[in-house]
Design brief:
Number of strands: 20
Helix content: 10-25%
Strand content: 15-25%
Distance between the termini: 25 Å
Largest sheet: 5 strands, antiparallel
Structural class: alpha+beta
Strand order of the largest sheet: 1-2-8-4-5
Length: about 525
């Protein structure tokens, strides 16, 4: 039987689904809210070339949208690495941090937590020397490694879908590295000196923690001080991924050379701009003054080159003093530019929020982002929206995340009602790996329930009907012995949402030819 799409959601249900859409992204960001505290150089103001008031406004808004992902990445990096030893997913730079268990119900440090994957994170700095990554054989267990540059683009991926389940070694190198890797070691070139590696490892429940934790502990990251003489295979950038640009970079004071060229290992590739780390990374960036935001961005740009297709936006920003080869000083900007940047914050934030509501494709009451995640080209609004909704989101080829907060009549899902999700024979999620269904409360967290079950996984011992179909029962009360294996308990009160996860989805799902069935009242 071919996969089918039953109906498209109504405008009412679309509006409700937009609230829950960010469930479609796996975000491993942790805490940080800023009070500006930075070094400012007082010099003669930079007077902008002839720019109309309308142009100035548009450039200011576009500059915010362009810079937002990198600033958010830096805030997340600092929050994730400000520890002396690995702890609860955090770790110092160039070291793995592991989540060794699912989040506890009610935990608020991770939004839309996963209960079918354990995560490992590594924030790397390869500005001055490569980093050798070794991953053990997974024994057939599905896993995925996503490598993001500081612009939040996923420039490479490894793991079951791409490189298989065998043991592997690869070397992350900086954008200007030249040399040779150890024999048999792939070279993965990071477009920026700093970046983020996220590992997602299939976990079929607490009983599998031991095996997954052993896999996590066997992943290593080792700085490479000197290159071996043997040549190696260079992993090409994913098709459509951006390449490092040749935009003029700021020079290091007193050295006479740009930071994107040969640099001394004694230099730091991170920013000197500081602020009080309070609140989430998103809250922190939203609270930044234009002075903090753009001074931080300028310092990050020194060692994290723009992409080749960014020249147009950088040229526009240069017209108002926000880019170029000269050292940046917010104090030197034209007063009109400062005012435009201050006015642009609200407009840029509104555009990001509006774009989030339009990211997904609504089908059968579910909303799914089918494209435009991971690599963005010059669609800076979409890139900012994805970063805002779920920094670290992987590409649809690796995972799809249908989400719903409504039943088949477009009404909000309620904890005191009984529902059924019925999959006809041949209509189960089309995946090469696995799928799951997770329930979240109104705070987007796992809510305590009487059964202590928060996810139904395809790897669970589910009970199928005689005709090969599958029913999942979503209700506050135990549906009985014959149905308990397929029961997803609801919280004691309030509304809730559902998120499916399709790992390594097949083309039918990627092309939008399949969608989850509507959630029906039982």
């Amino acid at each position: 039987m071919p996969y089918r799409v039953v109906s498209r959601s109504t405008h009412r249900s679309q509006a409700i689904l937009a609230i829950a859409l960010s469930a479609g992204f796996a975000c491993a960001a942790w805490a940080q809210s800023p009070q500006p505290s930075m070094r400012m150089v007082s010099q003669a103001p930079v007077v902008s070339p002839a720019v109309s008031a309308q142009e100035l406004h548009e450039i200011a808004v576009d500059a915010y949208l362009y810079a937002y992902p990198m600033v958010l990445m830096e805030a997340t990096r600092r929050a994730s690495t400000q520890v002396q030893n690995p702890l609860a997913g955090r770790a110092p730079m160039n070291r793995f941090g592991h989540r060794t268990a699912f989040p506890e119900p009610g935990a608020t440090d991770v939004g839309w937590p996963s209960a079918d994957m354990l995560y490992s994170n590594l924030w790397y700095d390869v500005s001055y020397q490569p980093l050798l990554i070794r991953v053990p054989a997974s024994g057939g267990r599905y896993y995925a490694l996503s490598l993001l540059d500081m612009w939040s683009d996923e420039y490479a991926s490894r793991g079951t879908r791409v490189t298989g389940n065998g043991e592997q070694a690869f070397m992350i190198v900086g954008p200007n590295w030249q040399g040779h890797a150890p024999f048999g070691t792939d070279v993965v070139r990071s477009p920026t000196g700093t970046g983020w590696l996220i590992a997602r490892i299939q976990t079929g429940g607490p009983a599998e923690y031991g095996a997954v934790n052993q896999f996590q502990a066997s992943m290593t990251a080792t700085p490479v001080a000197a290159a071996a003489p043997a040549p190696s295979l260079v992993t090409p950038l994913r098709r459509g991924a951006a390449k490092p640009a040749t935009w003029p970079q700021q020079q290091v004071p007193g050295t006479g050379h740009a930071l994107t060229g040969s640099a001394s290992p004694s230099m730091t590739s991170t920013s000197y701009v500081t602020w009080e780390p309070q609140g989430s990374a998103g809250q922190q960036v939203a609270s930044m003054s234009p002075a903090t935001f753009f001074t931080l961005f300028a310092e990050l740009l020194r060692t994290n080159p723009p992409h080749d297709n960014d020249n147009a936006i950088l040229t526009r920003m240069q017209r108002i003093g926000l880019a170029g080869s000269q050292p940046f000083s917010y104090d030197r900007l034209d007063p009109a530019v400062k005012q435009a940047l201050d006015d642009a914050r609200t407009v840029a934030g509104r555009r990001i929020a509006d774009t989030v509501t339009r990211l997904g494709t609504p089908l059968n009451g579910w909303n799914t982002v089918l494209s435009g995640i991971g690599t963005y080209g010059t669609d800076y609004v979409r890139r900012a929206a994805i970063a805002y909704a779920g920094l670290g989101a992987t590409t649809p080829s690796e995972a799809l995340y249908p989400v719903t907060a409504v039943d088949d009549d477009g009404r909000r899902l309620r904890s005191d009602d009984d529902y059924i999700l019925h999959f006809d024979k041949g209509q189960l999620p089309p995946v090469n790996a696995s799928w799951s269904l997770t329930l979240y409360n109104e705070a987007n967290n796992l809510a305590p329930n009487r059964a202590g079950r928060y996810t139904v996984r395809s790897t669970d011992p589910l009970k199928y009907n005689a005709d090969g179909s599958l029913d999942i029962y979503i209700s506050p009360d135990d549906p009985g012995d014959g149905k308990r294996a397929n029961w997803l308990p609801t919280p004691d009160q309030g509304h809730f949402s559902l998120s499916m996860r399709l790992y390594w989805p097949k083309d039918l799902a990627l092309d939008g030819e399949w969608a989850p069935p509507p959630v029906e009242r039982d």
